[in-house]
Amino acid sequence: MRRVLFKRVLVCLVVAAVSIVRCAAQVEASDPLSVEDAERLLIREGFANIRTLEEESRLVFTLECDSYKLPSEGFSVARKIVERIAGSSEMELKIIGLDRGIPQVTMTRDKGAESWHTTRKLDSGWDEVKKLKPKESLTGKVDIVVYPQVSLMNLIINQVYQSLWQLSPALEVSLWKGMKFSYQVKIPVFNDGYGDLESKVHPGIVSLSQSFRDPWKLNLQGKVTIGAFAGNRYGAALEASWYLPGDQVWFDTQLGLISNYYWEGFYFKFSRDFYFRWNAAVNCYCPPLHTQFTLRAQQFLIGDIGLKYEMIRHFSRCSVGLYAEKSKGVDMNVGFRFQISLPPYRHARRGYIPRITVSDQMGMSYNANNEKFYYREWRTEASDNIMSRNYFNPFHLDGDK
After folding, report:
1. Are residues 239 and 112 in the same domain?
2. Can you tell me the distance from the alpha carbon of 221 to that of 252, in angstroms, rounded to the nearest whole number?
3. Most buried one in 18, 59, 213, 330, CB count within 10 A?
4. 84 and 123 housed in the same domain
5. Which domain holds residue 11?
6. Which of 129, 157, 184 is the last residue before a domain boundary?
């Protein structure tokens, strides 16, 4: 019985390996493709929301990296496929990268050019191709995403760290363009010093968000979210970013009308006393160093107002940042944070069957001053972090320009 089982497992592994090699060979092949063949190959490689506009002098695609955790790796594959279309050397090629169906970047290879150029700016290509019906729509498709979470604090003299280890699966689904519903449940694995409530299974972030992009091509992007957020706050929030020409400098803000809550098991205990919180920042990205510099003015959760400086180095599968923050009447706080991408880096989908996968990445934040009350922040989605915010950075997608 064991030998039979072993042989079956071995055969499955061999078949899987052969399939992977064949797929890789198809993507790397240099034989020309028709537009229809390219669409079929893009679908087979796990791309979604595919539209194609074919004109005499240019070819425009829209697509979303559904099966690739890192858009930079997914778009690299898509570019190679599009380049193989017959007659592409005489045409301008465009790929408009989407997220939840909302356009994020435009990737262009000019006639006769050998490389691609990416920008957040949209042009007339999007106006025309958006009217077409997408193939492999993600509407109604469900993900169950497991977020491993680790929290550390160092507040006891005779103990190095107290820690909280949790598995936090979340049901995530989009029912229309730009929309995302998320319901997260926190399952404690180990709790040392984080209170009795964290030792119970309870919901985490429960939110409904709507992403948008301005219709006037001003490079303004954002989302509106309602629900129960991280940091034990619930309410409504607006988050937006405005990118200047050249994509190296941008402004972002987060505005929220929020109140306090906590979970007692699955019972939602909340306050009706709402208050306004805000932050606004200027960001600058240095392409040679792949480093982002941010200066943020912010009103933190308990009302303290101050400045926060961040320096984040982005690698291909990791982001590492240092920060310093100072509020009036409060000691300066410093620390570091990191996010690292989690394998597997591709997670295929089978139609409308719910896809179960590990989160795109996990990370930690170290608070050097052990500040427990001030400088507290809140997030509206479990997937929001320093690495995911860099997914559609044009310089990151193009590498060294």
Report:
1. no
2. 9
3. 59
4. yes
5. 1-30
6. 129
- In whole angstroms, give the CA distance from residue 356 to residue 177: 22
Contact between residue 59 and residue 82 where contact means Cβ atoms under 8 Å apart: yes
Q: What angle, 0 to 180 degrees and rounded to 10, lies between the N-to-C axes of helices 35-44 and 71-83?
A: 150
> Residue 243's closest CA among 213, 212, 218, 279?
218
pLDDT by residue for the chain (401 residues), tens only, comes to 445 444 443 544 443 444 444 444 445 556 788 999 999 999 999 999 999 999 888 999 999 999 999 999 999 999 999 999 866 667 899 999 999 999 999 999 998 888 999 999 999 999 999 999 999 999 999 999 999 988 877 766 666 678 889 999 999 999 999 999 999 999 999 998 888 888 999 999 999 999 999 999 999 999 999 999 999 999 999 999 999 999 999 999 999 999 999 999 899 999 999 999 999 999 999 999 999 999 999 999 999 999 999 999 999 999 999 999 999 889 999 999 999 999 999 999 999 999 999 999 999 888 887 778 899 999 999 999 999 999 999 999 998 54
Q: What is the CATH number of the domain that holds 287?
A: 2.40.160
Residue where the block lists tokens 């858009």: 71
- CATH number reported for the structural domain that contains residue 48 in this entry: 3.30.300
Beta bridge partners of residue 37, listed in sequence order:
none
Token pair listed for 143: 């993900």
**Backbone phi, psi, residue 127, to 5°:** -60, -35
Tell me: do 276 and 362 sit in the same domain: yes
pTM, two decimal places: 0.89
Say if 353 falls within a structural domain: yes
- Amino acid identity, residue 321? G
Q: Sheet holding 92-99: strands in order across?
A: 48-54, 58-64, 92-99, 102-109, 117-119
Number of structural domains found in the chain: 3
Is the same domain home to 191 and 210?
A: yes
